């Protein structure tokens, strides 16, 4: 017998009852002998994020959808920019990820194309960008109004990694 449990839709109690039934146990009898079963704790999801405009038409939900949809390397770069209060030079970002133990990135620019691609179908209807860059001063930045929303998006991403795109980076043979 093969058993499939969907951890996003099935409750803990439903999963336990299915396993017990698969092994020939009477789930009702087993449950009655366990009167202090833990209550199901609702898992946070994107629906808990604000739909209020944070600036330039971006909402917390749009920010999370962007974080969830970009490739893992682009997500790591956004996370790093949030950690450094939204602004870093090209060199600082490149140096950080050149030897990063979890997300080594050889070419930051190629990785960041994911953010521009996702922004087209997730971002607001205007032409605002989540990640800005100034080629003359050689910096990346995120508007301060969006930083708090990105922090909430990353908190949810940490709590629910199952909602994130998991494909590895595939730029230039990396």
What does this molecule look like?
The chain has 174 residues and is mainly α. It is built from seven helices and three strands, in the order ααααβααββα. It has helices at 12-22, 27-32, 60-69, 72-83, 90-98, 108-122, 144-159; strands at 87-89, 132-134, 139-141. A three-stranded antiparallel beta sheet has the order 1-3-2. Helix 3 packs across helix 7 (144-159). Residues 169-174 have low confidence and may be disordered.
Based on the model shown, name its key terms.
174 residues; mainly alpha; 3 strands; 5% strand; elongated
Structure summary:
With 174 residues, the chain is mainly alpha-helical.
Total helical segments: 7
What fraction of residues sit in β-strands? 5-15%
Major sheet size, sense and barrel closure: 3 strands, antiparallel
Spatial gap, N to C terminus: 41 Å
What structural class do the secondary elements suggest? mainly alpha
In angstroms, what is the radius of gyration? Answer: 21 Å
DSSP summary, beta strand count: 3
Mean pLDDT: 84
The ordered H/E elements are: HHHHEHHEEH
Principal-axes shape call:
elongated
Unreliable residue stretches: 169-174
Strand line-up in the sheet with most strands: 1-3-2
In which range does the helix fraction lie?
Answer: 40-55%
Detail the topology: elements first, then pairings:
Blueprint: H1 12-22, H2 27-32, H3 60-69, H4 72-83, E1 87-89, H5 90-98, H6 108-122, E2 132-134, E3 139-141, H7 144-159
Antiparallel strand pairs: 1-3, 2-3
């Amino acid at each position: 017998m093969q058993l499939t449990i969907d951890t996003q839709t099935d409750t803990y109690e439903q999963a336990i009852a299915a396993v017990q039934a698969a092994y020939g146990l009477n789930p009702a009898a087993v449950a009655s002998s366990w009167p202090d079963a833990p209550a199901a704790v609702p898992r946070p999801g994107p629906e808990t994020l604000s739909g209020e405009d944070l600036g330039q038409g971006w909402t917390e939900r749009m920010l999370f959808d962007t974080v969830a949809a970009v490739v893992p390397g682009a997500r790591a770069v956004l996370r790093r920019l949030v950690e450094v209060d939204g602004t870093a030079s090209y060199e600082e970002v490149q140096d950080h990820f050149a030897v990063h133990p979890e997300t080594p990135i050889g070419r930051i620019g190629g990785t960041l194309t994911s953010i521009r691609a996702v922004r087209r179908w997730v971002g607001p209807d205007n032409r605002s960008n989540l990640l800005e860059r100034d080629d003359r001063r050689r910096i990346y930045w995120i508007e301060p109004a969006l930083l708090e929303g990105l922090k909430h998006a990353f908190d949810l991403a940490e709590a629910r990694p199952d909602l994130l795109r998991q494909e590895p980076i595939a730029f230039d043979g990396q």
